[in-house]
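Known limitations

Files may contain more than one protein. Parsers should not assume a single record per file. Below, a two-record file is shown to illustrate correct handling: read the sequence, read the token line, then continue until end of file.
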Amino acid sequence: MICFASICPHPPIIIPTIGGSELPKVKKTIEAMRKLAGVFAAAKPETVIIVSPHGPVQTDKMTITISENLSGNFGQFGDFETQMNFKNDPVLTKEIKKSAQIAGIPVDLIDLPQLDHGALVPLCFLTKNYPQVKLTPIAFSFLDYQTHFKFGQILSKLLATSDKRFAIIASGDLSHRVTPDAPAGFSPRGKEFDEKLVELLKTGNVQGILNLDKDLIEEAGECGLRSIIILLGVLDGCQLSNANCQLLSYEAPFGVGYLVAKYSL
């Protein structure tokens, strides 16, 4: 069963050992992630499935990491002390691949023990006081959005047949072009995209998300939409309401939209 579902941003700057003097600028996001961590611990998941834009993304297939031991750190961001380690759920990874391929969705299993920051940042908060979970990392593809939604539906049906408790996390930042000082350059459509997506999530309008204007998406320079669509497919496949989205925070202090949201299951 699925006991926890959320959308999480992944800026390393929200990690206290990295953010330093910039932490007050991301106060809303940090407080929301700490609140979400309490919900996560209370849900008591046994395995976490996390979809990250910064994993081993392939153009024409979903990618699932099958390495038995998973680990990562924030050395590239100046934190050489924090180290995170997890055990994978190898049986689950193989079952996901089998179910997806039966449905005609290509999936590749790879051995890549090193976790990317798209997974590490949310997990640093969520598993801090609940570290005993297994982890199954998934990287989305560049196949169409409907395929990602279908992949989520397939994933949910598989999880529903198990007595184990699963958490599903969609890791991703929204537009990278919200303000003039944004890292990807400014576009007035960056803010438009974020506001539109947040409203569609709050109202549970899945079709509105699947049919978002392609030019708007391109102009926004986002990295989390496909992660979110997989999550929405998971909720749909479990016949759970996509309207049960609770927005915990949104801010864009550095020109990148950071959204924290949870679903009532």
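...continuing to the second record:
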Amino acid sequence: MAVERVLSGMRPTGQLHLGHYHGVLKNWIRLQHECECLFFVADWHALTTH
């Protein structure tokens, strides 16, 4: 039987807000208890420069 895996990421676009929570983070929290998950930030450079 195959293991269910989720690969999901988001691009940083400034400060986190309620849209991030309702659109992504709440689902990620639920999914991590249901299957194997890999979450990532799509643009590491955007986190380290202005």
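Parsers that stop after the first record will miss the second one. For reference, the second record is described as follows. The first helix runs from residue 18 to 31.
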